[in-house]
Amino acid sequence: MGKVRVKTFGLPEEEEKEKKKTKEKKEAKKMAKGAHGGERVVAVGPNEEEIEKVLETKPTEEGKEEPSFAKTASSTAMATKAESKGKKEKFIKKRVRSKRYQTSVQVLDKSKIYPLSEALELLSKFQKAKFDETVELHLNTVGTGVSGTVTLPHGTGKTTKIAIASDELIEEIEGGKINFDILVATPDMMPKLAKVAKILGPRGLMPNPKNGTITLNPESLIKKFEAGQISFKNEAKTPIIHLTVGKFSFGDKKLKENIDTIIEAIKPENIQKAVLKSTMSPAIKINI
């Protein structure tokens, strides 16, 4: 006969319960059919747990409510920014001066331009290092293109290694071996030196007629360098000349004679500013 459906009349509560049970059975069958019939069940929209997380709020500076997901994004952005700042600080470190420098700078008036004799006296008052410091002269010239040679009456106090260009030396340079401070060459060696110009040029070691390192008699030139001859030249793009004028142990008199000789060779009218210092000391502005 088949199934007989019995419906009860006159009992509204029982009828509602029956409808609800029937509806639940149909929904259960649909879910079962989707799970076993190859249908994909997809949950659309956030679940209750996700909704509760989104509704978690904190007050912002303006008194508004900020969702927790915004808080997470803000925290991530701040962490990324802090990490980036930390990386930059690794490369940009504040220069920390030594106690020796800080003690020395207390006796120096940075706004004053000192006569050379006073500057040398002041240099001797600075706290000294444990080694014989090199005395340096730094000049700002009126323009670029200032170059030449000069022989210091007392030398620089530094042992200078001088080499003469040869085929064997060129091979050593190509192999990365450079064991000299000055390279002199005869004119016939210059074409051969062209292939190592990219190595010597940036180091300021390429022989050049302007600094007197190209000569027909290199042995005679070496004697001049050993006697205290130095070359001076502006930096490639800036009107600055850096020179070694001796050792602190020379004393004021010898240092002054060396500096006077350099200034005479470069000519005072070519000099805008001059600074004197030793290896570890503050810089002293001097009047030329």
Instruction: Please give the CATH architecture of the domain at 97-156 and 228-288.
Output: 2-Layer Sandwich
Can you tell me the overall shape?
Answer: elongated
Tell me the CATH superfamily of the domain at 97-156 and 228-288.
Answer: Ribosomal protein L1/L10, rRNA-binding domain
| Total DSSP helices | 10
C-alpha Rg (nearest Å): 42 Å
Largest sheet: number of strands, sense, barrel closure: 5 strands, mixed
What proportion strand? Answer: 15-25%
Just give the CATH class of the domain at 97-156 and 228-288.
Alpha Beta
How many runs of DSSP E, i.e. beta strands? 11
Distance between the termini: 128 Å
What's the helical proportion of residues?
25-40%
Classification by helices and strands: alpha+beta
Order of helices and strands: HHEEHHEHEEEHEHHHEEHEE
Which strand order does the major sheet show?
3-11-10-4-9
Give a written overview of the molecule.
With 288 residues, the protein is an alpha+beta fold. Among the domains are: 97-156 and 228-288, Ribosomal protein L1/L10, rRNA-binding domain (Ribulose 1,5 Bisphosphate Carboxylase/Oxygenase); 158-227, Rossmann fold, CATH 3.40.50. Helices cover 40% and strands 18% of the residues. The protein has a five-stranded mixed sheet with strand order 3-11-10-4-9, covered by helices on one side. A two-stranded antiparallel sheet has the order 1-2. A two-stranded antiparallel ribbon has the order 5-8. A hairpin with a 5-residue loop joins β10 and β11. It starts with 11 loop residues before the first helix and ends with a strand.
